[in-house]
C-alpha cells in the first residue's frame, strides 16, 4: 500500500513535458533590457500584455470600483462575506454581455446557464468531472494546448485520444480524422464521451471555419456525444475571417432549445487572454444542460472567483463604452504585433501558418531540422533555448504529429524585445543554414574536400556545439 | 423528456449522484430563511440566520485599515502602478509577500510557539479546495478517512464527492464531552479493516466545528501516536484557530510534533482566512504539508483553485502589518468572547445548557431535555418547530453525524447586537411557553401536544417550501448569507 495517492506519483500532471522545461530555463536566466540583456526571452507564454494602459485608464476614471464602493457606500463587508457559488449577479450579467459582444451580438447567453470558476483551468477540469470518468475519453484535435493533459486527465481519470490534423490542409479538422480518432478510442476500449476543441485554436492561432464547425456538429449528433468549445481566445480575433462561435452555428442550424444536441454543447471562457488578467482567475462554463449547470455550480465551490475580483470586473465589463473601446483597440494592437512577428520571421526565411487570432503564431521550422524527426525537433529547440536564448514551445509538446513546428508568442513583451528576439533568430538561422549547407556538402564530398580547412572548421564548430548541449 | 434521459446517461456518475450532499433535508432550514429572512425594520418576524458560521464582528477594523492603506489595492491611484504585474501573476507558487504574511499570521495564531515556513505554503480555493486537494494527494478512490463525529457537514462533499473516498465516522460521546478517545479511534479503525476498507488517515478540525472546543495536548499526542502506529496520515483543519477567545489556548499540530517522535511525512495542515478574518468571499485556502511530495503535488493541483492575485496582493499588505494583526486578533477574541457569553448565559437563564466551549463562531446547544424521545426523528421535529415557530435557523446535530440526538449548533458571530437580543428573546419565550404548557397539561399529553403543533406547522411550512422551490431565484447555495443583499439584487 503506497503512502500517497497514485496521482502524486504519476506523470499525468504533464509537467515533465518540454513545454514546462523551457519555462524553467527561462526562470533561471530571464531577459531584462537593463539587468540581463543576454538572458532568455520568453516567447512561450501566451499572455496579452498589449492593452494594460486601457485597463489602467479605466481604473483611474472609476475610483469607486477600485475601492470597494458603490454609490458612495463601502460594500467591503458584503463582498468579503459573499461566497454564493451562483456568483455575483451583476458580474454574471456583465460577463455574458461581454461574451455576446465578442460574438458580434449574433448570439446571447443566459446568466442561468453560466458557472464561474477559478480560471479556464478549473472550468475545463470541472466540465470533465461532469461529463467523463475513468474508462472514458475525449477526442482532441492536435496540436493542442499542453495544459489539457493535466486539466482533462489528471484527477478525473479520463483519457484524451487525438484527432490528427496535419499541415497538408492547414491543420483543419476533417471527417476522416474524426472517424479515425473515434475508432482508435474504440480499439483502446475507451468510451468516447465527446470532442473538445479550442476555437480560436491554441497553438495554431486560427479560427475554425464554418465548414469545420458543421462537421463537428454532424459528428457529435451522429455519435450522440458532447462537444466542448474552449473559446478562451475568442476576444483575440484581430482579422478576418470573423470568429464563428459554436453557439452561432447551432442557432443558424435551428438546433436551439428543442434538440438533444443543444444540451450537449458546452462553452468554456475566461478573461485571462482577452483582457490579459490571468492572475485574477476568472473562468466560466456555459452549458445548455441544466444538470451540468447544477453539478458544475456545486463543484465550483472548489475554485470560486474571489468576490473582490468579481466586483471589480462587473463594474468594468458593465461599462459598454469601455468594452467597445477595449475590444477594438486590442484587436488593432494584436494585429500589428502579429504582423511584426510574421514579417520578421519571413526575413529570416521562416514562414508561419496563416493566422487571424490568438497571442502566438504557429511557426514552420521544418526546413531547419537536421532530419524529419522529433529528436531533431528537440535538438533544434534546445539550441533555440540555450544558444539563441528564446523560449518557444516545440510542437511535440502540443502533440503535433509532424516535427518542426513551434509556437511563438508575440503579445507578452515590448516591441523592442520582439525586435531583439527576431534579430537573434535571424542570425541563428543564418549560421545554421551555412552549417547545414556545409554539413551536407561535406557528407556529399567527404573524400574530395578534406583539405579545405574552412569547411573543416565549420564542421568542427558544429560538433563542438553539440557537445555543449549534452 | 426522452432526450433528457438519454443525455443524462452521457454524464459522469459524479455529476448525477448525491455525494455532494446538498439534497439533504437540512437545507430546509436554509430555504425557510431564504424565503423569509429577518430584518429589524423590513421583516422583524422573519427567520434569524443562526446556521451560518461567519465572523462578522470585526469589519470595522478591517474597513478602517483598507481606507488607510489605499496602496494595498492595485486599482487605486496609489496602487495602480502594480496593476499589470499583479494582473498577469498566475504562478502557482503564489506571491512571496502573501505567503510570508500567511506564515507569520499562522505562527501568531499558534501563540508564536511555531514558525511556519513560507515556502511550504500552498494556496487553494478556500479550505473547501484545500481539503479536497489534500485528499487527492493522500488517497485513491475507494480509500477512506476516519473523521471524529460530530463533524462539519461539508466534509461529505469536500472529502468524498470527486475524490471517490469514503468517510468512516469515529463516535465521540457527550459523556466524554465529545473527546476523541484512543479507544474510539481503534474501534473505528478495526471496524473498517474488518469491512476491507483501506483507511489512509484521520482528519480532524481543531478547533472543532461544530463543538467550538480546542483539542488538549493529551488528545493531540494520542492522535499522533495512533497515526504513527498505523502509518496513516493526520490532516488537521485549523480553520477556526484564531477564533479561540478564551483559555485553554489553541495548540497547532505543528507545535505538538515539535516535541514528539513522529513521522512528519504524515502530518498536514489545512488553513483558511474565511473564519478567522471573516473573508469567505476571497477564497483563501492554505495547504501546509510537512511531506515534500504532498507539498509539490498540492502546489501543482493549486492551479485548479489559485487565489486571485488581486486578493493575494491586498492580503499580503494586511497580514504583513504586524501592528494591525496584533490589534485585530486581540479585538476579535474579545468580541467573540463577549458574544459567546451573552448567548450562553442568556440560554442558561432559561435552563438551556451548552457544551463548554472557548472557540469557533458557534456553540453546541443541548436540547436533549426538550426532545419527546431520544431519536433523530424527534430531533428533526424539534428542529422544524425551532425554524417555523421560533423562527431561528439553527443546525440539528444529525446534520453533523452526531451519534446522540438533541444537540444543535447555534452560530452567534454573524449578526449584530440587536439581533442577538431578538434571538435570545424568542428562545426565552419559546422555552417559557413550553414550561407553561407543561404545567397545564399532564405529562402523558405533552408529547401529543407537541406532535399536533408539529403537524400543523409542517403542513403550512411545506406550502412555503413549494412556493420557494418553484422560483429558481430563491435557490441559494449552502454558504450564502445575504440572499437579499444589494449585491444579489443587482440586475443591471
Automatic annotation (TrEMBL), chain A:
Keywords of the record: Ethylene biosynthesis, Fruit ripening, Lyase, Pyridoxal phosphate, S-adenosyl-L-methionine
Cofactor(s) needed: pyridoxal 5'-phosphate
Enzyme class per UniProt: lyase
Keyword set includes Lyase: yes
Keyword Transferase: no
Gene Ontology biological process terms in this record: ethylene biosynthetic process; fruit ripening
Family annotation (Pfam families): Aminotran_1_2
Listed EC numbers: 4.4.1.14
Highest taxon in the source lineage: Eukaryota
Domain (Aminotransferase class I/classII large) ranges: 41-425
Reaction(s) catalysed by this chain's protein: S-adenosyl-L-methionine = 1-aminocyclopropane-1-carboxylate + S-methyl-5'-thioadenosine + H(+)
CDD domains the record matches: AAT_like (cd00609)
Pathway in which the depicted protein is active: Alkene biosynthesis; ethylene biosynthesis via S-adenosyl-L-methionine; ethylene from S-adenosyl-L-methionine: step 1/2
GO molecular function: 1-aminocyclopropane-1-carboxylate synthase activity; pyridoxal phosphate binding; transaminase activity
Physiological role: 1-aminocyclopropane-1-carboxylate synthase (ACS) enzymes catalyze the conversion of S-adenosyl-L-methionine (SAM) into 1-aminocyclopropane-1-carboxylate (ACC), a direct precursor of ethylene.
UniProt family annotation: Belongs to the class-I pyridoxal-phosphate-dependent aminotransferase family.
Record protein name field: 1-aminocyclopropane-1-carboxylate synthase
From TrEMBL, chain B:
Domain Aminotransferase class I/classII large: 48-427
InterPro entries linked to this entry: Aminotransferase_I/II_large, Ethylene_sulfur-biosynth, NHTrfase_class1_PyrdxlP-BS, PyrdxlP-dep_Trfase, PyrdxlP-dep_Trfase_major, PyrdxlP-dep_Trfase_small
Keywords: Pyridoxal phosphate
GO-annotated molecular function: 1-aminocyclopropane-1-carboxylate synthase activity; pyridoxal phosphate binding; transaminase activity
Gene3D superfamilies for the chain: Aspartate Aminotransferase, domain 1 (3.90.1150.10), Type I PLP-dependent aspartate aminotransferase-like (Major domain) (3.40.640.10)
Family statement drawn from the similarity comment of this UniProt entry: Belongs to the class-I pyridoxal-phosphate-dependent aminotransferase family.
Name under which the protein is recorded: ARABIDOPSIS THALIANA 1-AMINOCYCLOPROPANE-1-CARBOXYLATE SYNTHASE 1, ACC synthase 1
Amino acid at each position: 500500500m503506497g503512502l500517497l495517492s497514485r496521482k502524486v506519483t504519476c506523470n499525468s500532471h504533464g509537467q515533465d513535458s518540454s513545454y514546462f522545461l523551457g519555462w524553467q530555463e527561462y526562470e533561471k536566466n530571464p531577459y531584462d533590457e537593463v539587468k540581463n540583456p543576454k538572458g532568455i526571452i520568453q516567447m512561450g507564454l501566451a499572455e496579452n500584455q498589449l492593452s494594460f494602459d486601457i485597463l489602467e485608464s479605466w481604473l483611474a476614471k472609476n475610483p469607486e470600483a477600485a475601492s470597494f464602493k458603490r454609490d458612495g457606500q463601502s460594500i467591503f463587508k458584503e463582498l468579503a462575506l459573499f461566497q454564493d457559488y451562483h456568483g455575483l449577479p451583476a458580474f454574471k450579467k456583465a460577463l455574458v454581455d461581454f461574451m455576446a459582444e465578442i460574438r458580434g451580438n449574433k448570439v446571447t447567453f443566459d446568466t442561468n446557464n453560466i458557472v464561474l470558476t477559478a480560471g479556464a483551468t478549473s472550468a475545463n477540469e470541472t466540465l470533465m468531472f461532469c461529463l467523463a470518468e475513468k474508462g472514458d475519453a475525449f477526442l482532441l484535435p492536435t496540436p493542442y494546448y499542453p495544459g489539457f493533459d493535466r486539466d482533462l486527465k489528471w484527477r478525473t481519470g479520463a483519457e484524451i485520444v487525438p484527432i490528427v490534423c496535419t499541415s497538408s490542409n492547414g491543420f483543419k479538422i476533417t471527417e476522416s480524422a474524426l472517424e479515425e480518432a473515434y475508432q482508435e478510442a474504440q480499439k483502446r476500449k475507451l468510451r468516447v464521451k465527446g470532442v473538445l476543441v479550442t476555437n480560436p485554436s491554441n497553438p495554431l492561432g486560427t479560427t475554425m471555419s464554418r465548414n469545420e464547425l458543421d462537421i463537428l456538429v454532424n459528428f457529435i449528433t451522429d455519435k450522440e456525444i458532447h462537444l466542448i468549445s474552449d473559446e478562451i481566445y475568442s476576444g483575440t480575433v484581430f482579422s478576418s475571417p470573423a470568429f464563428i462561435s459554436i453557439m452561432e452555428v447551432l442557432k443558424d442550424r435551428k438546433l436551439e432549445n428543442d434538440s438533444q444536441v443543444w444540451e450537449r454543447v458546452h462553452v468554456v471562457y475566461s478573461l485571462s487572454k482577452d483582457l490579459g488578467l490571468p492572475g485574477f482567475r476568472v473562468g466560466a462554463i456555459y452549458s445548455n444542460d441544466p444538470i451540468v449547470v447544477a453539478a458544475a455550480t456545486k463543484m465550483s465551490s472548489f475554485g470560486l472567483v474571489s468576490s473582490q475580483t468579481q466586483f471589480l470586473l462587473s463594474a468594468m465589463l458593465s461599462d459598454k463604452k469601455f468594452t467597445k473601446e477595449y475590444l477594438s483597440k486590442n484587436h488593432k494592437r494584436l494585429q500589428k504585433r502579429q504582423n511584426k512577428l510574421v514579417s520578421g520571421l519571413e526575413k529570416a526565411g521562416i514562414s508561419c501558418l496563416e493566422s487571424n487570432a490568438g497571442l502566438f503564431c504557429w511557426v514552420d521550422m521544418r526546413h531547419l531540422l537536421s532530419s524529419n524527426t522529433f529528436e531533431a525537433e528537440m535538438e533544434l529547440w534546445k539550441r533555440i533555448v540555450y544558444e539563441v536564448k528564446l523560449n518557444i514551445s516545440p510542437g511535440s509538446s502540443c502533440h503535433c504529429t509532424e516535427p518542426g513546428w513551434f509556437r511563438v508568442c508575440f503579445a507578452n513583451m515590448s516591441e523592442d524585445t520582439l525586435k531583439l528576439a527576431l534579430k537573434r533568430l535571424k542570425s541563428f538561422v543564418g549560421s545554421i543554414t551555412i552549417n547545414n549547407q556545409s554539413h551536407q556538402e561535406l557528407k556529399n564530398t567527404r573524400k574530395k574536400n578534406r583539405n579545405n580547412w574552412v569547411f573543416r572548421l565549420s564542421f568542427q564548430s558544429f560538433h563542438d556545439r553539440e557537445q555543449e548541449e549534452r | 423528456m426522452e432526450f433528457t434521459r438519454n443525455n443524462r446517461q452521457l454524464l459522469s456518475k459524479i455529476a448525477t449522484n448525491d455525494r455532494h450532499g446538498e439534497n439533504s433535508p437540512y437545507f430546509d432550514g436554509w430555504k425557510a430563511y431564504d424565503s423569509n429572512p429577518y430584518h429589524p425594520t423590513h421583516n422583524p418576524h422573519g427567520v434569524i440566520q443562526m446556521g451560518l458560521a461567519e465572523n462578522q464582528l470585526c469589519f470595522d477594523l478591517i474597513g478602517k485599515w483598507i481606507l488607510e492603506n489605499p496602496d494595498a489595492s492595485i486599482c487605486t491611484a496609489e496602487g495602480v502602478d502594480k496593476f499589470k504585474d499583479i494582473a498577469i501573476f498566475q504562478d502557482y507558487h503564489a506571491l512571496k509577500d502573501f505567503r510570508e504574511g500567511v506564515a507569520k499570521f499562522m505562527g501568531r495564531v499558534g501563540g508564536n510557539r511555531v514558525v511556519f515556513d513560507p515556502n511550504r505554503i500552498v494556496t487553494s480555493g478556500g479550505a473547501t479546495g484545500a481539503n479536497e486537494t489534500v485528499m487527492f494527494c493522500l488517497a485513491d478512490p475507494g480509500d477512506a478517512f476516519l473523521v471524529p463525529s460530530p463533524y462539519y457537514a461539508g466534509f461529505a462533499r469536500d472529502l468524498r464527492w470527486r475524490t471517490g473516498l469514503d468517510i468512516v465516522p469515529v463516535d465521540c460521546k457527550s459523556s466524554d464531552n465529545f473527546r476523541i478517545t484512543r479507544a474510539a479511534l481503534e474501534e473505528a479503525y478495526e471496524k473498517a479493516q474488518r469491512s476491507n476498507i483501506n483507511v489512509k488517515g484521520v482528519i480532524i478540525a481543531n478547533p472543532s466545528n461544530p463543538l467550538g472546543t480546542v483539542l488538549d495536548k493529551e488528545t493531540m499526542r494520542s492522535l499522533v501516536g495512533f497515526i504513527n502506529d498505523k502509518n496513516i496520515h493526520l490532516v488537521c483543519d485549523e480553520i477556526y484557530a484564531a477564533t479561540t477567545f478564551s483559555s485553554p489556548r489553541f495548540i497547532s499540530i505543528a507545535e505538538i510534533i515539535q516535541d514528539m517522535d513522529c513521522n512528519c511525512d504524515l502530518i498536514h495542515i489545512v488553513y483558511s482566512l474565511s473564519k478567522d478574518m471573516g473573508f469567505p468571499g476571497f477564497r483563501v485556502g492554505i495547504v501546509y504539508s510537512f511531506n515534500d511530495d504532498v507539498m509539490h503535488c498540492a502546489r501543482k493541483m493549486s492551479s485548479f483553485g489559485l487565489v486571485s492575485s488581486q486578493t493575494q496582493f491586498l492580503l499580503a499588505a494586511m497580514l504583513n502589518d504586524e501592528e494591525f494583526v496584533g490589534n485585530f486578533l486581540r479585538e476579535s477574541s474579545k468580541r467573540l468572547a463577549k458574544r459567546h457569553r451573552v448567548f450562553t448565559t442568556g440560554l442558561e437563564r432559561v435552563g438551556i445548557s451548552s457544551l463548554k466551549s472557548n472557540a469557533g463562531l458557534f456553540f453546541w446547544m443541548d436540547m436533549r431535555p426538550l426532545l419527546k424521545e431520544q431519536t433523530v426523528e424527534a430531533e428533526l421535529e424539534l428542529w422544524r418547530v425551532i425554524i417555523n415557530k421560533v423562527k431561528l435557523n439553527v443546525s440539528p446535530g444529525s446534520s453533523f453525524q452526531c451519534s446522540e440526538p438533541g444537540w444543535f449548533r447555534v452560530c452567534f458571530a454573524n449578526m449584530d447586537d440587536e439581533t442577538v437580543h431578538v434571538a435570545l428573546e424568542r428562545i426565552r419565550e419559546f422555552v417559557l411557553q413550553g414550561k407553561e404548557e407543561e404545567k397545564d397539561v399532564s405529562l402523558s399529553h405533552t408529547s401529543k401536544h407537541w406532535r399536533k403543533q408539529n403537524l400543523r406547522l409542517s403542513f403550512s411550512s411545506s406550502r412555503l417550501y413549494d412556493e420557494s422551490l418553484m422560483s429558481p431565484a430563491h435557490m441559494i447555495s449552502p454558504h450564502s448569507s445575504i440572499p437579499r443583499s444589494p449585491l444579489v439584487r443587482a440586475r443591471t
